[in-house]
Amino acid sequence: MAIHLTQSAADRVRNSIAARGTGLGLRLGVRKTGCSGFAYVINFAEQAEPLDAVFEERGVKVFVDPESLKLISGTTVDFVKQGLNEAFRFHNPNIKGECGCGESFNI
Q: What is the pTM of this model?
């Protein structure tokens, strides 16, 4: 079980934490929502929770709760800029389908 970051995603997280002046890394999870069932939740990790799985890649720590890890293990997080838009993108090998807008997924 692991979560991976592209160089672009790791750079974005590192730069954002430096600009904020606080944070241990990236907190990645999922919540039930949307037309397909689940959506990704991404925040800065201010502290580690007792049951978190912690991964480190490209100098960035990623914290994931155990329930979310069951759904997103093996996911690669990328950061993409397209014109004026920029966003994190998730390449999750576990998903069976996504909604039309790409905001939610099912397993």
A: 0.86
